[in-house]
């Protein structure tokens, strides 16, 4: 396993485009901390975002993992190109001739995905811990360690999303088209969602019915893992209650979502391998 | 002798095209094999199958008597297929380090092999800055990194200038002199004739001949004959001579293929007695090229 990871890191290490993208990604992850600097000071209205409770434990785990996952597209580019470039440079053929099996080839990419997801998770953990201890109102150990499942969900989310990127990279063989393919897939899911809403518009509990179907689709299930954290914020809730909205929603990480996403990850990796095995190079 | 590679009834179909048709042959240790065939005859597909990049339709092949799996076997093989494929953004050394990691061998031989192919000076240049000849030489260095039991070359001189061709041939000859088994696919006959001891001829995926180069070129030879006057008389007289298997006319020259050893004076004497005076008579051994053309044309 270390050998395969080592081979893949050797390929990534010397590729300046990938290096720059990875660097930008981690700088962006750190930039979550900049939210702390958002401050309005207009006469009587004083607003400091960091003071509004977004960096309170355990809410910070939810907020930061959600924000951090927005930046995953930068790493997606790295992952799609590291797969598609093997086709365009024909180095995949050379790797196989040199004695790498097709299984090892896919695994080396998958291990890299896991490694990148793990480092991202670790990074978000560190940034959150530092921000949390600086701004959180509660620093008791038991509260700090509550809701850590968001980090786990973040990790699973990245692994699944990048596995999807790997699969599209193998399927389409060209980086730009593979990224385009992912976008088309996303639009496809959105259109299906719209269609389902239209179909069920006369029935009771429309959105529940739509979600019961949509939750099984890959991109939807990946985005379901960590739900948007904004309406959970007490400040927002207060405002909502004042205008008569009752926001009651389950924000926690759902085991079914984790299961669906893990199944998709497995399928993407398996189909990547099956596709590679079937193809003549 | 130890068998390095064995092919049994190998088939590959691309849709309706039967690229490799029931191909069987063995590669023994220490010999130099040439796979000959016109363009599109299935040479590269055959090599692709044994190198794990093309899936076979049916049949079997086994490396080293089938003792190890194909991808493990390939770690003991050096292969160059068509164009050299490396990572353009890595230097020569970085590319070779990667190959070492894949083949699970120490990186200690990189410098030595780069010197073998005269690329040591350019070891820290990126692959994309290399000329085709340099790329091809880097590919050879990469194939030699593991001191392979067998070196597989597919059209190694394709697309190179005369100097490049010469350099690559010199390198191949040196490697062959060290006793490394070589499998060379080519449509360049003189290339095969110069370096190979054994030859497999294929056309449209079918094996036409397999055996040593000497046996293939060994025959009773042929006569080239010319007369100044009417050649029909010559043709008629020749056809009555016992021991001539085929006669054909090529641009005023008559070529008579022999089925038993006949000396030049013997035939000259016979023709003179029959009132045919020759203006030109040469006895020849057929070259590999002629044998090859005979083989590949026979079945068309």
Automatic annotation (TrEMBL), chain A:
It holds the Pfam family ABC2_membrane_2. The keyword Transmembrane applies. GO terms for molecular function: ABC-type transporter activity. The chain crosses the membrane at residues 20-40, 60-84, 110-131, 151-170, 177-198, 258-276. The keyword Repeat does not apply. Keywords: Membrane, Transmembrane, Transmembrane helix. One of its GO terms (cellular component) is plasma membrane. Signal peptide: none annotated. PANTHER family: INTEGRAL MEMBRANE PROTEIN-RELATED, MEMBRANE PROTEIN. This is ABC transporter permease. It comes from Gramella jeungdoensis.
UniProtKB/TrEMBL annotation, chain B:
Keywords: ATP-binding, Nucleotide-binding, Transport. The keyword rRNA processing does not apply. Residues 5-229 form the ABC transporter domain. InterPro entries: AAA+_ATPase, ABC_transporter-like_ATP-bd, ABC_transporter-like_CS, P-loop_NTPase. The keyword Cytoplasm does not apply. GO terms for molecular function: ATP binding; ATP hydrolysis activity. It comes from Gramella jeungdoensis. Pfam families: ABC_tran. This is ATP-binding cassette domain-containing protein. Belongs to the ABC transporter superfamily.
């Amino acid at each position: 396993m270390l050998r395969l990871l080592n081979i893949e890191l050797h390929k990534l290490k010397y590729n300046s485009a990938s290096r720059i993208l990875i660097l930008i990604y981690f700088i962006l992850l750190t930039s979550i901390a900049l939210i702390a600097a958002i401050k309005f000071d207009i006469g009587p209205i004083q607003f400091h975002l960091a003071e509004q409770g977004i960096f309170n434990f355990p809410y910070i785990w939810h907020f930061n993992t959600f924000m951090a996952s927005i930046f995953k597209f930068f790493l997606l580019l790295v992952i799609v190109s590291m797969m598609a470039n093997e086709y365009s440079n024909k180095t995949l053929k050379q790797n196989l001739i040199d004695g790498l099996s097709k299984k090892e080839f896919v695994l080396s990419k998958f291990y890299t995905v896991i490694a990148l997801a793990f480092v991202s998770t670790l990074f978000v953990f560190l940034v959150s811990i530092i921000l949390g201890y600086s701004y959180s109102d509660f620093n008791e150990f038991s509260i700090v360690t509550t809701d850590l499942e968001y980090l786990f969900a973040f990790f699973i989310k990245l692994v699944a999303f990048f596995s999807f990127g790997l699969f599209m990279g193998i399927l389409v063989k060209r980086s730009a088209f593979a990224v385009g393919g992912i976008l088309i897939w996303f639009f496809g899911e959105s259109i299906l969602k719209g269609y389902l809403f239209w179909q069920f518009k006369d029935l009771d509990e429309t959105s529940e019915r739509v979600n019961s179907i949509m939750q099984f689709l890959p991109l939807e299930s990946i985005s379901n893992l960590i739900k948007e954290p904004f309406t959970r914020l007490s400040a927002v809730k207060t405002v909502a209650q004042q205008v008569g909205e009752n926001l009651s929603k389950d924000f926690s990480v759902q085991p079914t979502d984790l299961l669906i996403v893990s199944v998709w990850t497995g399928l993407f990796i398996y189909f990547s391998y099956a596709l590679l095995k079937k193809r003549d190079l | 002798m130890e068998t390095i590679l064995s092919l049994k009834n190998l088939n590959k179909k691309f849709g309706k095209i039967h690229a490799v048709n029931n191909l069987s042959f063995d590669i023994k240790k220490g010999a130099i094999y040439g796979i000959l065939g016109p363009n599109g005859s299935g040479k590269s597909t055959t090599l692709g199958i044994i190198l794990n990049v093309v899936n076979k339709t049916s049949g079997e092949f086994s490396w080293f008597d089938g003792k190890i799996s194909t991808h493990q076997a390939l770690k003991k093989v050096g292969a160059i297929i068509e164009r050299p494929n490396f990572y353009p953004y890595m230097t020569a050394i970085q590319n070779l380090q990667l190959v070492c990691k894949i083949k699970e061998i120490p990186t200690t031989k990189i410098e030595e092999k780069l010197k073998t192919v005269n690329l040591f000076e350019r070891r820290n240049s990126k692959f994309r800055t290399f000329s085709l000849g340099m790329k091809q030489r880097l590919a050879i260095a990469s194939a030699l990194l593991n001191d392979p039991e067998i070196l597989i070359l597919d059209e190694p001189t394709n697309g190179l200038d005369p100097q490049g061709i010469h350099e690559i041939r010199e390198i191949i000859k040196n490697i062959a002199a060290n006793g490394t088994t070589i499998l060379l696919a080519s449509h360049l006959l003189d290339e095969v004739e110069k370096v190979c001891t054994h030859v497999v001829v294929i056309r449209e995926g079918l094996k036409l001949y397999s055996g040593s180069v000497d046996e293939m070129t060994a025959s009773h030879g042929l006569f080239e004959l010319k007369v100044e006057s009417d050649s029909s008389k010559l043709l008629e007289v020749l056809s009555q001579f016992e021991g001539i298997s085929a006669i054909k006319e090529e641009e005023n020259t008559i070529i008579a293929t022999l089925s038993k050893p006949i000396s030049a004076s013997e035939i000259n004497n016979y023709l003179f007695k029959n009132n045919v005076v020759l203006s030109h008579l040469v006895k020849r051994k057929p070259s590999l090229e002629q044998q090859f053309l005979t083989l590949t044309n026979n079945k068309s």
